[in-house]
Design goal:
globular; 20 strands; 7-stranded mixed β-sheet; alpha/beta
Amino acid sequence: MKNREENMHNRQETHAIVIGGGIAGLLTTRVLLKHFDQVTLIERDHYPQEPVFRPGVPQGRQGHTLLLQGQHIIEALFPGIQEKLIAHGAIDHNYGSGTLYYYGERCPRLAPTIWGQGWNSTRLLLEWQIHQELMIYDHLHIMEGFEVVHLLFDQSKETVCGVQFRERNHNKPEDNILQELKADLVVDASGSTSHAPEWLKDLGYETPQETEINTHLGYATRLYEPPGTHQEDWWKFIAIQSTQSKRGGVLMDVEGGKWLVILAGSQKDYPPTQDTEYLEFAHSLPDQVLYESIKNARPISPIYGYRRTANRMRHFERLKRQPENFIVIGDGVCSFNPIYGQGMTVAALEAQALDTSLPSWQRKRKGFAHQFQRKIARLLVSPWLLATVADVPASEKQGVIAKLSQWYLDRLIMLLPRDPYALRAFLKVLHMVKTPLALAHPRIIAKILLQKG
């Protein structure tokens, strides 16, 4: 068992509660363990003993990509986790040289570089391993099978001081007695179904405004066993996207010697979940490499469809009043179109932001919640722009800046198959190791302006 963090200050004992034990909740828990004497994680579901699907994460069977920035942050929070993931079957992977990218045309194969080195795994394995890492902390209490129903509130101080919760007993709902747990800080990491807006309303506060951009994307995921003719030095990752097509696809080499295949279609051109039609959809992609890879492969799972894919932002940072000692993080604030793979990495960035912000909470708690939600909003500007600039139909774009951004992105995508420098810069931005400003390098701007077509 690990003792409490060595950098704990001599102060009155503090307690933090995390609502929700998905990726965002687990990473937030790790950060809070560095700053609080006691941390309680309340999760509606039960964690499995092995890295398998659990009902509390309905999208868990779908393909997930942890971007390189997210991998770096998680490795910093849990030193050595990459080696442990690989020991459980995760795949060493270079996202530069080891991935086939298609953006209207096949992109050049990049030379191996340190910046692109990471791993592939399923979300199921990643979440399971993070949970295992947390189990060694003796000042963490995980409550599985419980749900938070209300916030405890000190009206005189306008401060959240804990939660009201109950056991999720579907067989005997009459036994679900409400209980209370006090805390100095409550973090809602319960995801896109967060009840934070209703809780704020119940306490007499306004609810946050919401922005939603929905391209009606749907995707369908299936696991395959590679065919016997598969070459080990073949692509470990294939990503097919095109601004000229509503359809795309991804193939990932993941643990267990399996291929995880994701087919996606926007504007309600949803991929089917029947065997023959699924292959036909793969055959319709603008590059045949994914279809040729799986046509003789053996399916080893059903086809799982998913369509809850809208980009949605809840603007907690705009609230004129909000209670102290209660913050919202993860998909409860902002959920992204999953095809861009940003969700888990943004959760890691938010946990990192919380880590750097908590010393100010310890010095002066008043105003911390509002300041932190504003900090998160600033952090979300770049990933939100990247996710939504291509998702808003040209006919609906407002203003010169929005239209210019779309024009520039379209021209950049056209450049990628012909310019390794632009492709490398684009991938660094995509993986959040660089800001979008990297795409405004004079060398890229000049080639875009001189580009024909």
